[in-house]
Amino acid sequence: MAVPQDPQSNDEKIFIEFQAYTDEMIRYTTASKVILSCAQDQYTGPVLSVIIYTDAIYQKKAMVIESATGNSSIIGTFKFKEIVLSEMSEQQLIDIDPRLVILAPFTLKSGTSKKELALKCHQWKTSALEVYQDSLKRNVLNVLSLFILNRFRDLTVKEVRAMLNFDLSDTKAGEELMDIGRQEGRKEGREEGQQEIIYSLLCNRFGESLPVQKETIFSTDMSIINRLTQSLFDFKTVEDFGLWWNLNSDASQK
Fold it and tell me: Rounded CA gap, 15 and 140, in Å?
């Protein structure tokens, strides 16, 4: 869950939960996170809690909290809002903030042709490079590629890399990614690519001394990797990542 700072929010505390898979309890867990955070900070002011669903099916599967149904509702000083990216247009996102172009893949139908998708990928990349500062561009392209893989599940990382037409070969992670198809007995595919991109993002953010070995990440069930993709931006420190990993990897073994 992200807690952005907005100087125009009139002291309203904003929480954002990004949801890209089915979780029936997402409304309950989001509400509990918000309440716990406010209790820890002893905050009693106005709150806006937003759940951003990448697809309408995830919203439909979520169990209803009777007092917080619909796209927007209020309980006391708590206001809840839900956004479904698949029901928005790319232009609507950009009108809100040009940096939201990295969420544009979720505004396209999952059955979009590869020819049309390739054109859109080039546009997204161009727009993203224009609005993000140089120090963030590598990570932004990695995040954009993850979102494309999440939305278009029949694509491989090789196809996404070709569509975005960006070169990762100047980085260690990029070289390893390029070598996936050359390694004996190893098939290049979307799962290996997704794991590699996540590992690269973690290293770029926290350094290579991660509490989890690269081999462990690559041998982990994809359900955990998919959850990690969505939680990646919640970690403020490498310790946060380590704690998340221990809790989620232990739970998967029970």
Answer: 21
Q: Burial code of 145-172, b = ≥16 C-beta within 10 A, e = fewer?
A: bbbbbbbbeebbbbbbbebbebebeeee
Query: CA-to-CA distance for 84 and 225, rounded, in angstroms?
Result: 23
In a domain, 3, yes or no: no
Phi-psi region of 8 (alpha: psi -120 to 50; beta: other; left: phi over 0): alpha
Residue 162 lies inside a defined structural domain of this protein: yes
Q: In sequence order, what are the residues at sequence separation of 6 or more whose Cβ sits closer than 8 angstroms to the Cβ of residue 40?
A: none
Contact 184, 150 (CB under 8 A): no
**pLDDT tens-digit series, residues 160-213:** 888 887 544 444 444 444 444 444 333 445 666 778 778 888 887 788 788 888
pTM beyond 0.70: the answer is no
139/153 Cα distance (integer angstroms): 21
CB contact at 8 A, 132 and 102: no
Please answer whether residues 198 and 217 qualify as being in contact, where contact means their C-beta atoms are separated by less than 8 angstroms. Answer: yes
Q: Examine the domain organization and report whether 73 and 173 are in the same domain.
A: no
In whole angstroms, give the CA distance from residue 197 to residue 201: 6
Domain boundary among 87, 109, 142: 87
Q: Is 56 left (phi over 0), alpha (psi -120 to 50) or beta?
A: alpha
Is residue 62 within 8 Å of 26, Cβ to Cβ? yes
